[in-house]
Amino acid sequence: MMIYDVVIIGAGPAGLFSALSLNKEKVLLIEKNKQPGKKLLISGAGQCNYTNYCSMEEFLKRYGDKGRFLKTALYNFTNKDAVEFFKKKGLESLVREDNKVFPITLNSSDILNVLINSCIEKGVEIRYEESAIKISYDDINQMYLIKTNKGNHAALNLIIASGGMTYPNTGSTGEGYAFAKDLGHTIISPREALAPVYADSYQFKELSGISFENIGVTLWRNNKKINEFKGDFLFTHVNISGPVILNNSRHFEIGDILRINFTQFKNAEEFKKYFDELIANSGRLNVKTAIKNINLPKRFIEKVMELSQVHEETTCSQLDKVKRKKLAELISDFPFKVERLGSSSIAMVTKGGVSTDEIINKTMESKLKPNLFFAGEIIDYDGDTGGFNIQAAFSTGKLAAESINKK
Questions:
Q1: Tell me, what's the pLDDT at 173?
Q2: Under 8 Å between Cβ of 393 and 29
Q3: What's the CA gap between 400 and 326, in Å, rounded?
Q4: Contact (Cβ atoms closer than 8 angstroms) between residue 2 and residue 144
Q5: What does the alpha-carbon distance between residue 30 and residue 53 come to, in Å, rounded to a whole number?
Q6: What is Dmax (Cα atoms) for the chain?
Q7: What's the whole-number average pLDDT of the chain?
């Protein structure tokens, strides 16, 4: 049985970046798939939005209350460091107006190839189609024993970077949680994050593809407002999505009410005041014509008029108080009841995982077992869409490796 300086489980962005950052002679990276980085390849619709060019202060806010845990890792290897890393490897990057960063080729395989080639240059031994089955710690010899479907390995240091439980067809099936638990770690119950919302009695199938920029969403639970968000919103043929929904799905629970303000008014009260004046001053105009001043998509206007039972030929002077109130509510305070979140097969990342209370944030080393490290999505953090999760995988992987280098 070969004794390695380091064994890494999982050849996703965290595992690969750990491997290429190590300065040890004997490094083994095992991956259960036939190829590495399957989830990385589909990120950003295959274009790989691998980081974001916003300020680091803003970066930390994109992980909710886990920003503090990730601070050392992200400052140790920043978004600009990531861009510079790929540049030195011959791959330039494209920074869009929204700060999302892609390889200049808009091809995720180019990012993956840089990572793999960097591992090969470092002499990392990579084994594909090899799955870890059981991991234990030998207290006497102070090493980890890794049983796989193809044999047994021993490691002086172990990095578990096996990902979360979303997009299982890419290999992220959550087996790393069992390994961590067997080694004494607490697992925060994994669930879907960056997921669309399936709403009860969804009535907007025909509006699929219509989007709204920077609109307000309030979250209600048990008739109490508990949070509010702003961002871009999207109707699909089966659910509601867009960054404002995806980024904040970590906060949603079944039965919650999401109230959507489709206007640029600060809140529903301000819009209602404006709307009442608009209708009162538009007399003979059709309601549909008058509402055009609000600058909303035509199909959306038609839909909310249908739901308010306002005929398209109705004039403003004919619009009664009840229907006027209903129409204003649907435009500026539309209630969607959360039936469920998108399943693990479509959620982009996992919320939950190895408890951050049991990981040293300055090294990514376990507080419970010596020379055991975690990197990437297996840890209980999740970031917004826009490159934040891949950057965190790179950064936690690099920090774990550098911590081992210093030993």
A1: 82
A2: no
A3: 56
A4: no
A5: 32
A6: 89
A7: 95
Give bridge partners of residue 215 from the DSSP assignment: 231
Q: Report the C-alpha gap between 128 and 114 in whole angstroms.
A: 18
* Cα–Cα distance list, 378 to 61, 218, 375, 389, 399 (Å): 20, 30, 7, 12, 15
Residue carrying structure tokens 């007399």: 283
Contact 379, 353 (CB under 8 A): yes
- Give me the mean pLDDT over the 368-393 stretch: 97
Helix/strand/coil for 86: helix
> How far apart are the C-alpha atoms of 279 and 323, rounded to whole Å?
12
Report the alpha-carbon distance of residue 98 to residue 148 in Å, rounded.
43
Do residues 59 and 76 lie in contact, with contact meaning Cβ atoms separated by under 8 Å? no
**Burial per residue of 242-262, b for 16 or more beta-carbon CB atoms within 10 angstroms, e otherwise:** bbbbbbbbbebeeebbbbbbb
Assign domain 3-192+346-405 to its CATH superfamily.
FAD/NAD(P)-binding domain (3.50.50.60)
Percent of the chain as helix, strand, coil, to the nearest 5: 35, 30, 35
197: its two tokens = 């919302």
Its pTM surpasses 0.90: no
Is the pLDDT at 192 greater than 90, yes or no?
Answer: no
- In whole angstroms, how far apart are CA 63 and each of 56, 87, 388, 389? 12, 26, 8, 9
DSSP 403: H
Structure token digits, residue 25: 């002679």
Cα–Cα distance for residue pair 19/81, rounded to 1 Å: 17
Tokens 């039972």 locate to 309
In this predicted structure, the answer to whether residue 21 has a pLDDT above a threshold of 80 is: yes
Structure-token match 């009841």, residue found: 337
- What stretch(es) of the chain map to CATH 3.50.50.60? 3-192+346-405
Phi-psi region of 223 (alpha: psi -120 to 50; beta: other; left: phi over 0): left
How do 334-341 and 197-199 pair as beta strands? antiparallel
Token duo for residue 113: 């190839």
CB 190 within 8 A of CB 38: no
Residue 148 and residue 170: Cα distance in Å, rounded?
19
Residues 282-321: pLDDT tens digits?
A: 988 999 999 988 889 999 999 999 999 999 889 999 999 9
Give residue 7's Cα distance to chain centre: 27
The two structure tokens encoding residue 328: 């204003």
Tell me how far apart the alpha carbons of residues 407 and 395 are, in angstroms, rounded to a whole number.
Answer: 19
If one counts every other C-beta atom within 10 angstroms of the C-beta of residue 149, the result is 11
Amino acid at 292: K
